Amino acid sequence: MPTEKSQGKRMSERTVRVLVALAGALLTGLAGQLALSKIGGSLVYLSYDFPFLFNPRETVRDVRIVYLDELDGETLDRRVQAKLLDKLGEAGAKAVVYDLIFDRPWDDPAVDREFAEAILRFRGVDKDWNPIPGKTTRHVVLACGRKEIRQAGAIGEQLIPPTDELLAAADDFGLVALVHDKKFTVRELTTGTRDEPSMTWKAAVLMGTPLVEGERIARRWIRYIGRPVYPGEEKKGVVTAVPSISAGDVLNEDASGLLRDKIVVVGAKPGIVGAAAGQDLFATPYKRIDVRGDLPLTSGVEIQAMTLANLLDGNWITRSAGPFEHWMIVIGGVLLGAGFTLLRPMHAVVSAVSVVLLFAAAGTWTQFVKGVWFPWSVSAFAQVPVALVWGGTSRFYVERMFRVQLDEEQRQLRDAFAKYVSPQMLDMLTVEGFNIKTGGEKVEAAVIFTDLANFTNMCERVGDPERIVATLNEYFERTTAHIFEHDGVVIKFIGDAILAVWGAPLKDPDSALKAARAGLKLSQDATLEIEGV
Description:
By secondary structure, this protein is an alpha/beta fold. The protein has 17 helices and 16 strands. The chain has helices spanning 4-36, 41-49, 78-90, 109-123, 164-169, 199-206, 247-252, 256-259, 285-288, 300-313, 322-339, 345-370, 376-417, 423-431, 455-462, 465-485, 511-532, and strands at residues 63-68, 95-98, 139-151, 154-160, 172-175, 188-189, 220-221, 244-246, 263-268, 281-282, 298-299, 318-319, 372-373, 446-450, 489-494, 497-502. Strands 1, 2, 3, 4, 5, 8 and 9 form a 7-stranded mixed beta sheet that branches. Strands 14-16-15 form a 3-stranded antiparallel beta sheet, covered by helices on one side. Helix 6 runs parallel beside helix 10 (300-313), helix 11 (322-339) packs parallel to helix 13 and helix 12 packs antiparallel against helix 13 (376-417). The radius of gyration is 45 Å and the shape is rod-shaped.
């Protein structure tokens, strides 16, 4: 039976393992909460970016882009803009959204007047706001910028609206800014500030989309449709997510096949540099997950067009609620942090890979099907590694610590059992860990009981305890040697007697007698030796 000391050691081991599991849960939970904060922003957004890796190749339905290029040597000549707007009307475009800020009057007032009249014509009215016979009612939305102002220690923003003349001719204007991170990656769908809607929001409302103004400032995330076009793919006929055409082609060709019944976003061609246009290039989730490494940046015009397409279709992405995310981290900390301490290293690695794949699959499915993304990458790439390292390291040290104790315990048990069992049986017991249980087991066995004849009288005649003990020890050693030789087990020593047992009927029935005779021979020799003194 296990000793109280060994039971205490096993109890201590269970306690240590429980404490290690609790520590793993706490450490994994803290790692998740830390990654979920601003410190882990890049890791959090990986869960938003990753699913786009599996986006199918498709195009938006109702939005097209017209890029402004070098037209007659003047990039943004408003006389050219007036002609372009007329051509867009002839092509059948049903609305035009300008991703350009016309905040300063043209040097020649007649140019602005011509542009304003073109806006009115596109909308289906003349300069006196009378409906033009045969003209369809269309819409024009202009862009509005904003700038930061500091006054008397306070920080605020000031709108940069279009000129009064152009604003009076258009349907409306809206903010044009995009929200991006430090790497100029645009993920969030901008709908303006609390006071001023974005131009894409106003354009969608003008087109009859059932958007609720009271829900406008709720955070939304862009559902990037289709896949980006890599350099050289356009020559192979690959269509971009938002089909586009240059302003020069619109002026010189019939673009009705591309633009009819579409909403056209007009903006500067990517790479045009100037005081009015600027670089206007941004990264998207595709840039982050770009395997080839040669994906170009995306123009601000294309992102505005994608945002408008999301609003028109009511097809954007939302983020999971804060309480859900924190509970996910807490539950993940408990299950991963504590669970990995129970697994062997290989099983832990396989489980870790499986958990990461499961998170990625669940996150991709949820984003595509439900339109919701949650920061599963925090659990997959922060909590799982922490739990895996903690589980493997702690298990190694716990097992090493208690293995030393177990080895010492087994050494003591082996020394104790060496006096009662054969070396072969001792090896077997050591391998099986001395797992002795109460209750016994019913088996067929052979038993031997020996003692020294007239031992009491012999002790009285000799009268020397040291010589008696030496004689008994020699007797015990020779007798047990014969018992062990036949795989017997010494049950106990009783004074001058030995009780031994074999766990099965003996193959050699005389083996017990041999052991007994050896003991008897020894007793006779010892008796003669003592009596001769």
